[in-house]
């Protein structure tokens, strides 16, 4: 428990939270056992990791002024207090996503669409908050053996501060599991290994939810394929016409939804973490000076 408390102390320090309530309010599950991602999948948790279930993951978000989406499955952290990464799991009930376009994924066209979309959205952003897509960290690729779709996009703010989002989508019978790595550019490659080597190989989709168990006579089918999944559910043709983010904003307004684009969400989240840490340190220094 002490190690978990220390680890969470560091996490909440970045979030501006309290280390006292951390140990009391979150039910950490130690590695070396199997944990459930609700009814969808299980993870054979490595001894070097710790886990929060869906309820605790959403509670942590609320406690740190982040609104949970409601489809969280759980989250995994390192038990090593020196490591600051985390992986958040969510589930999207989109219907069965056909992978017929697996040989037709066009990274150049998708990248162009993302660039056009972000630059269109930048017209309504203030200086310092604009995001510019610069290229692929990892071009989209699909593993037909595991039915996993992976990509990682590079971007930067006006001040050239880099951000990255590393995404893995695991297709299931009725939708997909998303695994989002929260890290920073400096430690991205090291942290990515944790996800690729220690977590994904030990994640098993439950019987009845597996992609190959799709029943064409009874199961719902998604309206988009792999390319549409990379584009956040918006079709490539539509996205190329008006820009990805503009498309998502239009959809959000039409259905009264609040949509947070993954690319900007991760970068903004990381930026907030470190800015809060800096503010907390500055407040502490001010308090110390006042007491002198």
Structure, briefly:
The chain is α+β, with helices and mostly antiparallel strands.
Layout of SSEs?
Blueprint: H1 2-15, H2 19-25, E1 29-30, E2 34-37, E3 41-44, E4 49-53, H3 54-63, E5 72-78, E6 86-92, H4 107-122, E7 131-143, E8 148-157, E9 162-171, E10 176-182, H5 188-199, E11 203-205, H6 226-230, H7 236-242, H8 244-255, H9 262-291
Antiparallel strand pairs: 1-4, 2-3, 3-11, 4-5, 5-6, 6-10, 7-8, 8-9, 9-10
Helix pairs in contact: 1-2, 4-7, 4-8, 7-8
List keywords for this structure.
alpha+beta, 3-stranded antiparallel sheet, 11 strands, 39% helix, 292 residues
Total DSSP E strands: 11
Radius of gyration: 20 Å
Q: What is the terminal separation in angstroms?
A: 36 Å
In spatial order, strands of the major sheet run 1-4-5-6-10-9-8-7
Could you give a short account of the major beta sheet? 8 strands, antiparallel
Identify the overall geometry: globular
Helix content: 25-40%
Judged by helices, strands and strand pairing, the structural class is alpha+beta
Mean pLDDT: 76
The helix/strand order is: HHEEEEHEEHEEEEHEHHHH
**Poorly predicted parts:** 1-24, 234-274, 276-292
Structure, explained:
Helix 4 runs parallel beside helix 7 (236-242). With 292 residues, this protein is an alpha+beta fold. The protein starts with a helix and ends with a helix. The strands form 2 sheets. It has an 8-stranded antiparallel beta sheet, sandwiched between helices. Strands 2-3-11 form a 3-stranded antiparallel beta sheet, with no helix packed on it. The chain has helices at residues 2-15, 19-25, 54-63, 107-122, 188-199, 226-230, 236-242, 244-255, 262-291; strands at 29-30, 34-37, 41-44, 49-53, 72-78, 86-92, 131-143, 148-157, 162-171, 176-182, 203-205. The relative contact order is 0.14. The radius of gyration is 20 Å and the shape is globular.
């Amino acid at each position: 428990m002490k190690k978990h408390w220390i680890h969470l102390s560091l996490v909440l320090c970045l979030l501006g939270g309290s280390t006292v309530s951390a140990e009391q309010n979150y039910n950490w599950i130690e590695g070396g056992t199997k944990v459930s991602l609700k009814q969808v999948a299980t993870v054979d948790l490595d001894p070097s990791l710790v886990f929060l279930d869906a309820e605790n993951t959403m509670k942590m978000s609320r406690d740190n002024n982040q609104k949970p989406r409601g489809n969280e499955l759980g989250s995994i952290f390192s038990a090593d207090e020196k490591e600051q990464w985390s992986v958040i799991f969510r589930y999207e009930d989109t219907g069965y996503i056909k992978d017929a376009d697996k040989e037709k994924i066009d990274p150049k066209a998708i990248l162009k669409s993302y660039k056009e979309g972000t630059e269109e959205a930048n017209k309504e952003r203030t200086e310092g908050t604009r995001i510019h897509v610069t290229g692929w960290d990892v071009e989209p690729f699909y593993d037909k053996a595991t039915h996993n779709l992976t990509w990682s996009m590079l971007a930067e703010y006006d001040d050239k501060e880099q951000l990255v989002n590393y995404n893995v989508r695991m297709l299931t019978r009725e939708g997909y599991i998303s695994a989002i790595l929260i890290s920073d550019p400096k430690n991205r490659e090291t942290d990515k290994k944790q996800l690729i080597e220690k977590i994904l190989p030990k994640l098993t989709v439950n019987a009845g939810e597996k992609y190959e168990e799709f029943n064409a006579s009874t199961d719902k089918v998604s309206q988009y394929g792999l390319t549409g999944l990379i584009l956040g559910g918006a079709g490539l043709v539509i996205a190329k016409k008006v820009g990805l983010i503009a498309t998502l904003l239009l959809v959000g307004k039409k259905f009264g939804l609040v949509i947070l684009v993954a690319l900007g969400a991760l970068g903004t989240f990381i930026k907030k973490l470190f800015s809060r840490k800096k503010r907390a340190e500055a407040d502490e220094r001010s308090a110390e000076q006042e007491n002198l």
